[in-house]
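Query structure, 640 C-alpha cells:
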C-alpha cells in the first residue's frame, strides 16, 4: 500500500486530510512539526509528502521541502505544499525553487486528494521506467561481457549476427502496409507478409485480422497519426499466436490519382521485443498540463447529445435516452448493429456526465483471453514469466472515468466473473498481488449480439447481465433514420469537404442514397461521403462520385421521367376501360368515406402502385419517400 506523510500543525486539518486520503486506499502518517516530519522520513520510505504552507515557529512549507529534498532517496518522492493564499506569489515561487512538485492554494484544496493520486501515478510510472532502464542496462552489460575476450576480427565478423544487432529497437517497425480508406492493402513489405501471412495485396484488414478492430482504427486516422493499438493475431499453420501493436499515418495527397486517402500502417511484434514490450505498453505521451482544459472543453462540445444529428422521432428518443443516462454512474449497455456509432455514444455518455478521469476503450475481441484479462485487471511483478514490473489494469487507469468494453459478448467467462466482482465491490485484485485495490469508474459496454441468448447458452453470466439491465440503450440503425439522412450527410460533407470545397449534393445522388438500405450504417455513410468528397472535381457530389453499391443501385432504379403522373380517366385497377359504366378505383375518395388520415394514406399508396405498374421502387420515388419507409407503410396497411 502506498504511504503518504502529512506535516500539518493543526490537529483538525490533519484528521480531515488523513480521512480523505485513507478513503483512497492510502496509508497515511501524520506529523505535527517539521522535526517530526524529518524524523519520519529518515525512519521509513514514503511515496508522497504533503506539507502545510505555514508550520509555525518561524518555519514554512518551502523551507521544510528544501530540507527534505536534501535527504537520500528523496529526489524521486513528490512533495505537495498546500494552503497558501492565491495572492502569495512569492511563497509559491520559493516553493517551486526548493523542489516542490505541486502547490495548491486554499481555493484549490477540495481537489487535494485527486492531485495526490496524480502525483502518485506519475511517481509509479517514473519508477517503472527506472526499473526498465536497469533491466536493459543489465541485459546490455551481459551481452557485452559475452563478447569480451574475442579478437577484433571475430568481433567484426560476428557483429552483424550478434543478438544486439538483431534485437528490434522500439522505433523500428517489424512490418509495413499501405492501405486505402476502405482498409484494403495496396502494398506490403516482407515483414508485413511475415506477420500477417502471404497474399496480403487486395485483401482488407477486416479479413486478415477479423474481430480485432484494426480496420476501424486505421480508417479513423484521416487527418492525424494514431498509435498504440494492441491486438493479437491467431495462430496459423507453422506459426504460433502473436501480440502486435499498430501505428497509422495518413498520407498527404500528392495530386496524383489514387494517392489521396492512403494510410501507412506500421506493425510492431511485441513478442520479439522482449524488454521493449513493457516499455511500449507502459509509456504514454503526456499532454502538457496547460492544454488539458482546452482539450476537455473541446471534447465536451464534440461529444454532447446535441451532436447526435437528426429530427426524426427515432433519433429524438435516442438523443433523450443518452442525455438521461449520461447523468448517472451505473453501468450502461449499448446495443446495436455494427457501424451504428456505439463508440460515439459511449464518448457522449462520458463527456456529458460528471466523470473527471480518462475515457479508455478496449475491444474485447482484439486480444486473446489471457492478454485480455491482464489488460483489463492488471498484474503484479512476477505474476507470470516476463512480468518484470507491476502493471495497472484499465479498471484502475480509468479511475474517476469510463472504461468502454466494445463487444462485451466476446469476454471470456473468467473475465466476466472478475468484472462482476469489480462492479459489485468496487475493488480489483491484480494477478499476483496480495491485496485488492479500490476503484471507482463507470463501465460502458457494447454488443451487436443478443446477450440474453448467450446467457441461456451459458456463454454469458446472468448476474453480469443484470448489472446492465437497468441501463440498456438501443442505438438505432441508419435505415430507421432515413428521414435524418440529409442532415447527417451535410454534417459529413462539412467534415470532409474542407480541401475540395464541396458545397452541394445533387438531387439524384441524395435520392439514390435514400433508397439504399445502408447495411454498414453510419460508418458506411461516413466512408461514402469521404470517398465522394475526394472524387468530385467541381464541388458538387453526383451519383458517379458515390461508392460502387450506390452506383449499381442507381442503375437499377427506373428513370423518374418515365413514370406517368396519372392514368387515363375511367381506367379500372386492371387497366381496361368499361364502356357502359365507370367503376371507381380502389384509391378514389368518395363522400361516403370517413375522414381518416390512415384511409387517405392507404389510398395514396394504392394509387402510386397502380400508376407505377406495381413497381415498388418507382412508387417510392414517385411519393418521395425511402424504400424502407414504403415497405413499412405497405406492411402497416397489409397491401400486397
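Result returned for the query:
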Amino acid at each position: 500500500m502506498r504511504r503518504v506523510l502529512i506535516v500539518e500543525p493543526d490537529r483538525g486539518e490533519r484528521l480531515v486530510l488523513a480521512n480523505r486520503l485513507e478513503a483512497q486506499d492510502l496509508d497515511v502518517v501524520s506529523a505535527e512539526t517539521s522535526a517530526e516530519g524529518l524524523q519520519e522520513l529518515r525512519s521509513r520510505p514514503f511515496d508522497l509528502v504533503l506539507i502545510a504552507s505555514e508550520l509555525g515557529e518561524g518555519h514554512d512549507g518551502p523551507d521544510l521541502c528544501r530540507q527534505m529534498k536534501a535527504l537520500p532517496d528523496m529526489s524521486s518522492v513528490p512533495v505537495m505544499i498546500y494552503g497558501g493564499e492565491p495572492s502569495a506569489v512569492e511563497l509559491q515561487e520559493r516553493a517551486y525553487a526548493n523542489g516542490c512538485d505541486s502547490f495548491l492554494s486554499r481555493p484549490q484544496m477540495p481537489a487535494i486528494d485527486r492531485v495526490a493520486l496524480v502525483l502518485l501515478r506519475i511517481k509509479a510510472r517514473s519508477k517503472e521506467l527506472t526499473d526498465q532502464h536497469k533491466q536493459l542496462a543489465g541485459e546490455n552489460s551481459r551481452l557485452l561481457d559475452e563478447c569480451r575476450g574475442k579478437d577484433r576480427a571475430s568481433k567484426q565478423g560476428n557483429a552483424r549476427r550478434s543478438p544486439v544487432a538483431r534485437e528490434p529497437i522500439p522505433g523500428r517497425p517489424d512490418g509495413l502496409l499501405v492501405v486505402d480508406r476502405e482498409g484494403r492493402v495496396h502494398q506490403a513489405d516482407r515483414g508485413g507478409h511475415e506477420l500477417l501471412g502471404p497474399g496480403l495485396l487486395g485483401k482488407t484488414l477486416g479479413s486478415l485480422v477479423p474481430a480485432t478492430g484494426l480496420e476501424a482504427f486505421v480508417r479513423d486516422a484521416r487527418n492525424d497519426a494514431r498509435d498504440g493499438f494492441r491486438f493479437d493475431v491467431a495462430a496459423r499453420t507453422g506459426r504460433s499466436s502473436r501480440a502486435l501493436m499498430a501505428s497509422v499515418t495518413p498520407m498527404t495527397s500528392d495530386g496524383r490519382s489514387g494517392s489521396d486517402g492512403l494510410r501507412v500502417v506500421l506493425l510492431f511484434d511485441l513478442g520479439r521485443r522482449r524488454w521493449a514490450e513493457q516499455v511500449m505498453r507502459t509509456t504514454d505521451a503526456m499532454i502538457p498540463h496547460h492544454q488539458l482544459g482546452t482539450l476537455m472543453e473541446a471534447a465536451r462540445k464534440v461529444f454532447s447529445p446535441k451532436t447526435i444529428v437528426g429530427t426524426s422521432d427515432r433519433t429524438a428518443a435516442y438523443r433523450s435516452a443518452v442525455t438521461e443516462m449520461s447523468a448517472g454512474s451505473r453501468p450502461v449497455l449499448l446495443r446495436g448493429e455494427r457501424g451504428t456509432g456505439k463508440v460515439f455514444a459511449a464518448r457522449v455518455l462520458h463527456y456529458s456526465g460528471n466523470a473527471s478521469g480518462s475515457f479508455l476503450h478496449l475491444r474485447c475481441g482484439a486480444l486473446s483471453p489471457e492478454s485480455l484479462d491482464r489488460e483489463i485487471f492488471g498484474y503484479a511483478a512476477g505474476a507470470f514469466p516476463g512480468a518484470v514490473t507491476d502493471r495497472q489494469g484499465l479498471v484502475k487507469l480509468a479511475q474517476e472515468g469510463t472504461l468502454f468494453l466494445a463487444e462485451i459478448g466476446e469476454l471470456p467467462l473468467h473475465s466476466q466473473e472478475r468484472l462482476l466482482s469489480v462492479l459489485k465491490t468496487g475493488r480489483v485484485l491484480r494477478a499476483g498481488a496480495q491485496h485488492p485495490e479500490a476503484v471507482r469508474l463507470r463501465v460502458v459496454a457494447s454488443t451487436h449480439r443478443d446477450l440474453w441468448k448467450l446467457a441461456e447458452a451459458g456463454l454469458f453470466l446472468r448476474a453480469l447481465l443484470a448489472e446492465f439491465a437497468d441501463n440498456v440503450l438501443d442505438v438505432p440503425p441508419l435505415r430507421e433514420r432515413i428521414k435524418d439522412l440529409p442532415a447527417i450527410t451535410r454534417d459529413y460533407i462539412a467534415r470532409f469537404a474542407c480541401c475540395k470545397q464541396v458545397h452541394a449534393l445533387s438531387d439524384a445522388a441524395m435520392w439514390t442514397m435514400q433508397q439504399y438500405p445502408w447495411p454498414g450504417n453510419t460508418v458506411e455513410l461516413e466512408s461514402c461521403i469521404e470517398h465522394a468528397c475526394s472524387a468530385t472535381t467541381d464541388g458538387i457530389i453526383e451519383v458517379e462520385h458515390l461508392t460502387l453499391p450506390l452506383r449499381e443501385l442507381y442503375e437499377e432504379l427506373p428513370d423518374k421521367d418515365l413514370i406517368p403522373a396519372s392514368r387515363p380517366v375511367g381506367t379500372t385497377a386492371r387497366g381496361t376501360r368499361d364502356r357502359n359504366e365507370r367503376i371507381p378505383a380502389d384509391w378514389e375518395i368518395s363522400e361516403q368515406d370517413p375522414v381518416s388520415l390512415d384511409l387517405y394514406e392507404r389510398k395514396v399508396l394504392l394509387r402510386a402502385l397502380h400508376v407505377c405498374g406495381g413497381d415498388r421502387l418507382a412508387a417510392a420515388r414517385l411519393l418521395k419517400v425511402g424504400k424502407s419507409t414504403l415497405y413499412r407503410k405497405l406492411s402497416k396497411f397489409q397491401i400486397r
